[in-house]
Amino acid sequence: MIWRRAALALLAACLLTCLTGAACAQALQYERPVERAPQEKDIGGGYATPKVQKPLPRGAWLEILDVVLLAAAMGVSVWIVVRKRSRRWLVALATASLAYFGFYREGCVCPIGSIQNVTVALTDPTYHIPMVVTATFFLPLLVAVFYGRAFCGGVCALGAIQELVLLKPIQVPRRLDQALGLLKYAYLAAAIWFAILPAISRDFVICRYDPFVSLFRRSGFAHMLALGAGFLVLGMFVGRPYCRYLCPYGGLLSWFSRLATRGVTITPDKELDCGLCTEACPYGAIDQMRAVRRKCLYCARCYASCPREGPLARAKDIVPVEELR
Amino acid sequence: MEYRHTRVMGGKLSAPEWFAHSLRGLCTGPDGRLYAAGDSQVLVFDPAGKLLRRWPTAKPACSIGINPAGRVFVGQPGQVEIFSASGTLEKTWRAGWLGEVTALGFHNGDTFAADSSSRTIRRYGRDLSHLNDIGRDNRTNGFLIPNGVLDFDIDPSGTIHAANPGKHRVERYTPEGQLLGHIGRFDGVDPEGFPGCCNPTNVALGPGGQVLVTEKAGARAKVLDAAGKLLAVLGDKIFDANSKNMAITADLRGRVYVAEPVRLQILVFEPVRAKAEAL
Amino acid sequence: MSKTLSRRRAIGRVARGAAVTGIGLTAGFLVKKAEGQVVWQIDAAKCVNSRLGEFGVKVCDLCVKECVVTQSAVRAVNEFSKCGRCCVCPSYFNVKSAVGRDGLPSEKLCPRDAIQRKPIGEADPNDPANNFYEYVIDEVKCDGCGKCVMACKEPAGLGSIVLRVRHDLCVNCNNCAISTACPKDALSLWPALKAVLGESAPA
Fold first, then answer.
1. Mean pLDDT value across residues A124-140
2. Mind telling me how many Å the CA of C192 is from chain B's nearest CA?
3. What's the pTM?
């Protein structure tokens, strides 16, 4: 750790020396000669110098609003899963998040990308991370410590768009699922590597290769739009491929989720361990009739498929076993 | 008419006494000596290029001129310092105006100073009292000099030839300020015209009545005849491309000196006798 | 059984506490050296098209090409107080083109015809060269290609036209693609107020 810091400091010092030298060389070579632009009184005739337009960016309070909405959405997600236990509500939340964080805010800054900002802030002393981005990074992790991947459920815009296009989920074999799941840690490592490079060669790869951002912006290079469309088509049959196999933030969330004790709970029932929830879960997050916190993406399909409490329970009459005899 | 580039004098960091930041004024004395003003000093050279004398100025020197009595006038921001021929300060002349004196000229006892801040040439009498302004009473309230330097030269008959770069002209005025005419036009392609936004930047008169001009953005020096026809181009690619406001002067033999402000050199051009025209 | 369960619960509690503490400390450390709103802006002293001392370089149009959105938010802006108001503006006209009958160049430089020229002050009806002219860049037509910026650079002009990011148009990406591509690292994050007022150096 210390060696890396020292190496980075040395690199930064060399770079700074070179740049200073280059800047000084520039100054010696060419000094700006005298010039004098005409003033209003020189021009006469009642002329007034027009003001240069200086358009303002979005208000800073709007960025704070985004963080507040992020926290609120996660609160709603937790409430839906712990109290309300309804898939319909979760779909509504996912749609709302997609509309706001996805298409309106165009998916930027998101917690996934903020990994890079936080990495740079921890390694580059000249980089000052805005508070809003720090909050965006840590809030979902904080929630994950207690409630698991509430962020992934109805809040993350990238997750929401995949969630909503999933039509016919194919169960991915366990071994393959495990192997592919390692990809996201490789992606996380790559993202951190490119973020800790010095400023001139630094690149935010998560942002650059985000498949859905060009769809959110409704504009972009052809290959990015194609990538996004490709992920959506894949996402119709394989449940949330980006979230399970590529999302670096998902990797972080799954670590922190191991500590959570609350979140999605499968109704314990000695009489009717029917296993419908295990089949319904597209993400392989139910193991031995229990939700696996680190994989559960808060989609609430298990609730919808449960004969004890979901719509099934309300739609059909469950006949008690005694009556069958 | 042809000119040959014979030598280069100085250059940044070429000698401890040489200019280090700016080189803005050139003029030649009647004895062929070259006077160069820049930084906050004046350097005097003999025709062979040897440094004869140098002395400091109070403020950064913008221009230099020698009156018929042999006194050296050095134009500076807001004042003109008058030195004797040997370099002793005789008078610091601050008139009512503020401004940078970017050119000086003398005729018939009168002193002319170009004030680039108010964009006029001012005429002063024998006792340095203000007589009149030249170039002021036009619709643009003065010369159009976005480059910040107003340059002129006076011919023996007293006509002032002033560079008006915004109009791409060299204008002729009487000492009383009446506009007589002008030569030159804009042309970005034809070398006879003045290219770019504001050229010519500096002007000087040769011994045969030729008009010597320097230009920027396509830095070059040219020799025109009194009617404005192009006689010679002194070095199209010799000057540093970033040069601007190159001072120019000619001595009585027709040798031309051009100050290059980026590399801080003085380039010397000698006239080559034109071949006799076949009848 | 209850002992194991309570031990597990206790370990769980400690682990969660440690996680929360860790998050809190790191977040606190980052917030300490935090900054307010930051936006992307171009430093004219570094931008290829406006930096001094380089004559004859090719115009850099990466600001147009590299943005991930179809039309980038970079525009050429004329800082009027520094403009020379010249009759023959090297950014408006292509000063290398042939001279027309009115004594002015025949071609304009801007490929999208985004600069408007009009006489100001006391107009001289007889002599168009005896006038000041104002040059206004239409930001709807301008796409930030940089040709006029390079043409206005010293010594050809006075350097009053520079490239600027317009913040009402910029999406404000986390990592600006133009910034990654810029060869002189001229595009960087500035505090919002400085970026808008256009002062030269970033924080």
1. 89
2. 33
3. 0.81
